[in-house]
């Protein structure tokens, strides 16, 4: 298993670059040259290195668990047989498209639009997103309860705007998408002429759905995607679809109200369902099913799906090795069964304790930052501090593991295992509705290389998968650890006070707790960030969307600042020896280098273009250079002068 580089690697730097001109390439230049994007990836960076290492650990667990053995535990049987079935390409090829035939037969048997509620309930349970999404969510106005939610969905392109952009690249992408749909219909047995006609039908319906959908920037405002209605009110705005049949069919017998996140979309759905023939609806539904499970279908279908989504959209040259994809699939469907073995090998109780100490240090720094803000009134500061003090810290893995006993995994039935896993998870989610929220639940699996702040529960979550080198290493000095995982901690804490998170109170309720003058002051400062990041461009001249990335940019800048404050507090308590330079760099310089190097990353031009169009995170180099150029302590650490690129004349600062 490859050893990960340390959080700070002198050999990754390019010292020929002036840190005050381009700090990202100063910190990462040699790494970037030596680590081009592998043909089986679209993006490759330090996150990818760690994710690959985690996947190697999971592979070892799964290969051992997949060996038939009477002593296997129930979890070992499920994860082992799921993985073995996924890897059994011979069995998958033998079953062919017949593996999905029961689902397609349900669609073919549809005799009238009045029977759509039952069919869509079934398709929703087994993981086919068609026409709309339906599930459970925490009530934004009553954070103690779970409610049902219905909203936009059913698109095959990454974003609603892909259907309407008129630049040459977007027009070409749509042509390639229609060709992909046509190819898929042919691979499922249709004649060329019929497949061509059906691809146009599917695209026409998806375009109509996209027309009614909100864009990503609008959906970032939680107030614009919360519209609690009675079931009768929902039925009244879309009478063409019998919600009063769909809801019981999906398993909810006593539902009286729900969140209709995008009412205009449901009204547009009403128009689509009334104006579209039953035959065309069936074409669209077949398309949604055909594209939903490529990993468990014959290789020619799997390759076709990869060609469009991997090569065309992301610039990935080769499909990833099957074992990698099967590991990821097992983690996705049985993540807390697989995650237990991962945690035992990599993390343990001591990992929680070490991380929590650093979290507490960064929280103290954020408290000082709030108290010292010159632009916020005392009344709002007190509310902000109440919220900060109520943030719950969840570290590594759940206190209570998920029970998969009712999920049936059958060796040799790869498609069935996937569909049953989808249904298991869908029913688990639906079972939450009208019940109290479980604050101990996690949104991601333990091996995931990520962390998140969850506004409705006012908690921060750090999966065991990210609490490894290069983000945290016990043997490294505080400066590097605070620059790496410390900034990640600060980033997640700041999310509680970004343009989305600030709209939730200490209890996780969507409630305005800001004085009007503070709200205006906040917007003036975030407008600065919107403009700064909107000026950044990637290959081909595509601009970063400063409104889409605002929350992440605010968290990057705030996280860097408060982690630096926490480091300064830690260094003040250390002996003079602990504050000496290492490798020729002062502790403050090592802090910024630790931060810069976790973002070393290469990407294909296609992947970067896709990122700036759909991803709320800015590309890696702008996350680094955008943040340090706003922070005067960086300029002091590296002796930067006014007028140099890493010293912004009108620096942005929110937190």
Could you describe the 3D structure shown?
With 655 residues, the chain is an alpha/beta fold. The chain has 2 domains: 276 residues, Collagenase (Catalytic Domain) (3-Layer(aba) Sandwich); 221 residues, Orthogonal Bundle (Neutral endopeptidase, domain 2). Helices cover 53% and strands 7% of the residues. The chain is built from 25 helices and 9 strands. The strands form 3 sheets. Strands 2-3-5-4 form a 4-stranded mixed β-sheet. A 3-stranded mixed β-sheet has the order 6-8-7. A hairpin with a 4-residue loop joins strand 7 and strand 8. The protein starts with 22 loop residues before the first helix and ends in a 17-residue tail after the last helix. The mean pLDDT is 96.
Quick structural gist:
With 655 residues, this protein is of the alpha/beta class.
Secondary-structure blueprint of this entry?
Layout: H1 23-34, E1 43-45, H2 46-66, H3 74-87, H4 89-95, H5 101-108, H6 116-125, E2 132-139, E3 142-152, H7 168-187, H8 192-211, H9 216-219, E4 228-230, H10 231-237, H11 243-249, E5 257-260, H12 263-275, H13 278-290, H14 299-314, H15 322-346, H16 348-372, H17 378-389, E6 392-396, H18 414-430, E7 451-454, E8 459-463, H19 478-495, H20 516-534, H21 550-572, H22 587-597, E9 601-603, H23 605-614, H24 620-628, H25 632-638
Parallel strand pairs: 3-5, 6-8
Antiparallel strand pairs: 1-9, 2-3, 4-5, 7-8
Helix pairs in contact: 2-3, 2-15, 3-15, 5-13, 6-11, 7-8, 7-14, 8-12, 8-13, 16-17, 16-19, 16-21, 19-21, 19-22, 21-24
């Amino acid at each position: 298993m490859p050893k990960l580089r340390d959080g700070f690697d002198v050999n990754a730097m390019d010292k020929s670059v002036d840190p005050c001109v381009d700090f990202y390439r100063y910190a990462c230049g040699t790494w970037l040259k030596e680590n081009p994007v592998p043909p089986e990836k679209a993006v490759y960076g330090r996150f990818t290195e760690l994710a690959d290492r985690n996947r190697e650990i999971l592979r070892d667990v799964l290969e051992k668990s997949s060996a038939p053995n009477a002593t296997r535990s129930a979890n070992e049987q499920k994860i082992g047989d799921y993985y073995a079935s996924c890897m059994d390409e011979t069995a998958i090829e033998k079953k062919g498209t017949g593996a999905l035939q029961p689902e397609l037969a349900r669609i073919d048997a549809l005799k009238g639009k009045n029977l759509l509620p039952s069919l869509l309930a079934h398709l929703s349970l087994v993981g086919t997103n068609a026409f709309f999404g339906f599930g459970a969510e925490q009530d934004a106005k009553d954070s103690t309860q779970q409610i049902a939610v219905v909203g936009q969905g059913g698109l095959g392109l990454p974003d609603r705007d892909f259907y309407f952009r008129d630049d040459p690249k977007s027009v070409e992408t749509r042509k390639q998408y229609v060709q992909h749909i046509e190819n898929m219909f042919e691979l499922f047995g249709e004649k060329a002429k019929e497949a061509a006609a059906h691809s146009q039908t599917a695209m026409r319906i998806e375009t109509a759905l996209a027309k009614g959908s909100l864009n990503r920037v609008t959906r970032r405002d939680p107030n614009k995607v919360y519209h609690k209605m009675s079931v009768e009110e929902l039925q009244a705005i879309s009478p063409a679809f019998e919600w009063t049949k769909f809801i019981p069919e999906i398993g909810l017998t006593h539902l009286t109200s729900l969140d209709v996140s995008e009412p205009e979309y449901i009204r547009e759905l009403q128009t689509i369902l009334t104006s579209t023939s039953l035959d065309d609806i069936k074409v669209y539904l077949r398309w949604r099913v055909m594209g939903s499970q490529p990993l468990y279908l014959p290789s020619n279908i799997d390759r076709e799906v990869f060609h469009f989504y991997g090569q065309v959209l992301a610039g990935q040259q080769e499909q990833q090795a099957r074992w990698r994809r099967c590991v990821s699939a097992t983690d996705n469907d049985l993540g807390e069964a697989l995650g237990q073995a991962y945690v035992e090998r990599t993390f343990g109780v001591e990992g929680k304790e070490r991380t929590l100490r650093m979290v507490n240090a960064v929280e103290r720094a954020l408290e000082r930052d709030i108290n010292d803000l010159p632009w916020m009134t005392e009344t709002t500061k007190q509310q902000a501090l109440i919220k900060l003090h109520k943030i719950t810290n969840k570290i590594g893995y759940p206190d209570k593991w998920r029970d998969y006993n009712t999920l049936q995994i059958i060796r040799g039935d790869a498609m069935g295992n996937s569909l049953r896993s989808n249904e298991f998870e869908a029913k688990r989610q639906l079972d939450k509705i009208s019940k109290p929220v479980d604050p101990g639940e996690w949104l991601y699996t333990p091996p995931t290389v990520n962390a998140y702040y969850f506004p409705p529960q006012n908690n921060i979550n750090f999966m065991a998968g990210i609490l490894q080198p290069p983000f945290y290493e016990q043997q490294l000095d505080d400066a590097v650890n605070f620059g790496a995982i410390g900034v990640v901690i600060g980033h997640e804490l700041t999310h509680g006070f970004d343009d989305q998170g600030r709209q939730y109170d200490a209890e996780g309720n969507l409630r305005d707790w800001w004085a009007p003058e503070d709200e205006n002051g906040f917007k003036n400062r975030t407008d600065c960030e919107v403009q700064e990041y909107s000026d950044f461009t990637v290959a081909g001249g595509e601009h970063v969307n400063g409104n889409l990335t605002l929350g992440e940019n605010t968290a990057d800048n705030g996280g860097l600042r408060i982690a630096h404050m926490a480091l300064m507090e830690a260094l003040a308590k250390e002996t003079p020896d602990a504050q000496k330079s290492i490798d020729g760099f002062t502790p403050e310089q090592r802090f910024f280098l630790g931060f810069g190097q976790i973002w070393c990353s290469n990407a294909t031009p296609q992947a970067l273009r896709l990122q700036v169009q759909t991803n709320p995170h800015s590309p890696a180099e702008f996350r680094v250079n955008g943040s340090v150029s706003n922070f005067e302590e960086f300029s002091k650490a590296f002796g930067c002068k006014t007028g140099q690129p890493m010293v912004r004349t009108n620096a942005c600062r929110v937190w």
